[in-house]
Amino acid sequence: MTDWRAAHERVVDNFRTGWDRPDPHAWDELMDPEMRFVQPMLRDGTGPEHWWRESARTLALLPDLRADVLSWAGSGENLFIHIRFTATLAGRPLSWEAVDLLRVTPEGVALFRESFFDSVPVATQVLSRPRSWLRWWRSGVGPFFARRRLLRPPPTHVHGGSS
């Protein structure tokens, strides 16, 4: 019988430790080589290399970014982690909350991460702080709306056959 609670606690501890000292490689022991990422304001993708690029872009924009785990709940392979992000942008505080859904193995390895948060207030804060625009542009995180649309892989359509 799988001890999912132990697996969840291991993942949450690794997740929390990574966000205490974020670096693109802070979560390496947590990630499966084929881990899939779906996240607002960043490019969706697969694998640690993808995460390393996207987190490096985010940290270039928000070098003091941290996240606190507020709560978590798990059931089998599904683990939900409620977090609060904090950072400084153009000399002023920036914060938002998110819920990350992770699909994990019994060994505590993450196979999938989807982050859920309302990106509009975050984007509005960036856009309302002109001192942040150059850093934002150089980071590769923006422009938010065009980047999300243009860099998302084209949808694949499944065409059903007729019988």
What does this structure look like?
Residues 12-105 form the SnoaL-like domain. It holds the Pfam family SnoaL_2. This is SnoaL-like domain-containing protein. The protein has 163 residues and is an alpha+beta fold. It has one domain (4-149): Nuclear Transport Factor 2, Chain: A. It has helices at 4-20, 48-61, 119-127, 133-139, 144-151, and strands at residues 31-38, 45-46, 66-75, 78-89, 92-104, 110-116. A six-stranded mixed beta sheet has the order 2-1-6-5-4-3. A hairpin with a 6-residue loop joins β1 (31-38) and β2 (45-46). The longest helix has 17 residues, at 4-20. It starts with a helix and ends in a 12-residue tail after the last helix. 20% of the residues are buried. Residues 146-151 have low confidence and may be disordered.
Descriptive labels:
163 residues; alpha+beta; Nuclear Transport Factor 2, Chain: A; six-stranded mixed β-sheet; 32% strand; elongated; SnoaL-like; SnoaL-like domain-containing protein; NTF2-like_dom_sf
